[in-house]
Each structure stands twice: as structure tokens, then as C-alpha cells.
Specification:
Layout lengths: L1 H31 L7 H23 L4 H18 L5 H7 L2 H6 L6 H25 L1
Helix pairs in contact: 1-2, 2-3, 2-6, 3-6
Keywords: Membrane, Transmembrane, Transmembrane helix
InterPro entries: DUF2809
Organism: Rhizobium halophytocola
Length: 136
């Protein structure tokens, strides 16, 4: 029993470390991508793809060893966050103008963002599956 618990805690740490790496990549891309001369669509949608991957990694850290639930919950969170963009309240719009608000919630609803989130979730899930198979 102790071994399962230790494995889950180790997996949580790995998922959190991976999420932090994805966050760093996404923030770097958003803050320096345009200055580096990268195309708008690459900066915009690669950032959204990384955001989707981050959501899956954070969900996996909370629920290690439950890949179907991870996928379902990450998908629900990503879609819900995008639909929250359709709701406007003064306090929420003020938050969306901050860097944290832009990175966490975004400002404008887009079906293309949902597609990018799904791509990021799928890529992270595929990478997770490949890593898990390589260990066995």
C-alpha cells in the first residue's frame, strides 16, 4: 500500500514539474514571441495549445492514474474557461486586462481556441501515454 502512495506522490511531482515547464514555455512565447519575429498565428495558437496541455497536466497532478477522468475534466475545464469569455462583468473585464487575466482567462471567445486547447490536451495525453508505456 505504501508503494502505491509513494508512486502517486512521485507522479504528482512529475506532473507539476511538467506543468511548470509548459507554463514557462507559454509565458515566454506570449511575452517574447512577437519580438522574436514569430508569426501571430503561431504565437496565438501555440500558446493556446500549451495552455490546454497545462490544464491536463494540472488535472493529472490532482488525479494521477485516472487517464479517462483526466481527459474529461481537462476538456470540461478548457471549454468552460473559453465560454466564460462570453460573460462580461466590470470586475471580470478589468481582470482580463491584466497579464494574469490574459494568460488565465483570455479576453475574446474563439472556437479556434477550443480547438487549440483540445490539441494541447491530446498531445499531453499522448506524451503521457508514451512515457508510461516506456516505463513498463
Amino acid at each position: 500500500m505504501m508503494r502505491i502512495s509513494n508512486t502517486r506522490w512521485r507522479m504528482r511531482g512529475i506532473y507539476l514539474a511538467a506543468a511548470l515547464a509548459v507554463i514557462a514555455a507559454g509565458v515566454t512565447l506570449r511575452l517574447a514571441g512577437y519580438q522574436a519575429g514569430l508569426p501571430y498565428l503561431l504565437v496565438k495558437y501555440a500558446g493556446s495549445t500549451l495552455w490546454g496541455a497545462m490544464v491536463l497536466l494540472l488535472v493529472a497532478a490532482v488525479l494521477p492514474g485516472r487517464p479517462r477522468l483526466q481527459l474529461a475534466l481537462a476538456t470540461a475545464i478548457a471549454v468552460a474557461v473559453e465560454f466564460v469569455r462570453l460573460y462580461h462583468a466590470p470586475w471580470l473585464d478589468q481582470f482580463r486586462l491584466t497579464l494574469a487575466g490574459q494568460l488565465l482567462l483570455g479576453r475574446i471567445f474563439s472556437v479556434f481556441n477550443i480547438a487549440a486547447y483540445m490539441a494541447g490536451i491530446a498531445l499531453a495525453a499522448l506524451l503521457n501515454t508514451c512515457c508510461n508505456r516506456a516505463k513498463t
